[in-house]
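Q: How would the structure tokens look for this protein?
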Amino acid sequence: MSRQGKLGRPPVGTEVRGLIRTMSRANPGWGSPRIVSELAKLGLEVAKSTVDKYRVRGARPPSPTWRTFLATHAKELVSLDFFTVATVRFEILYVLVILAHDRRAVKHFNITAHPTAQWTAQQVVEAFPWDTAPRYLLRDRDSVYGGAFRERVAAMGIEEVLSAPRSPWQSPYVERLIGSIRRECLDNVVVLNECYLRHVLGAYFVHYHRWRCHRALAMDCPEPRPVQSREQGAVVEVTEAGGLYRHYERLAA
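A: Here is the predicted structure in token form.
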């Protein structure tokens, strides 16, 4: 007795195939999982293998993902770290980022040309006012975290967790964040001065929190992003920061 119908997945529509190609061409740093998550937020359920088949591959492969760990205390753990940025006049600026592990949210960032223990301690105070301090703070063994820093953090009731020397892999969340900042933001601009860098990073973090999906968050954003249904309108590409970033959403005609 013959069976009616065909086996396998239903064919992918022309509109979806075109959207996959458009997203991958406009965002060469996006891998297939990122495109799958963006499509899911637009109400389009597409398998990763389908995206692999139709996406346009650039010359550079997508960046590898970091293995995540320290999940046991994710809801009560934050990381902080510095990274350097050179301006067009070769001035070295130090950027401090403080990242909450549970939602991958950047709680605070600031920039200085001369980091000190007192300055760094004040940033922790500004990041966690009143009774919002986390239980654990993960950091490396840089000398900038001197006595003044340790005393202030202890007074806030925060327990410090130090990574081993020369072991950035022990701080995977903040290291991955810094890598994303460089690839998606700083590698595409020329930093003029501290004011400009502050503006550029501020715009990036707005995009990062509202639109950038994360594997560790089940392909959601740090600020939860609802799934849009087809009835909400057509898919449009929205540019941010003068075209430096893009996101996709459904808007009624």
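The chain is about 30% helix and 20% strand.

The helical segments are 14-26, 32-41, 48-54, 117-127, 147-155, 172-184, 194-210.

Upvote if useful.
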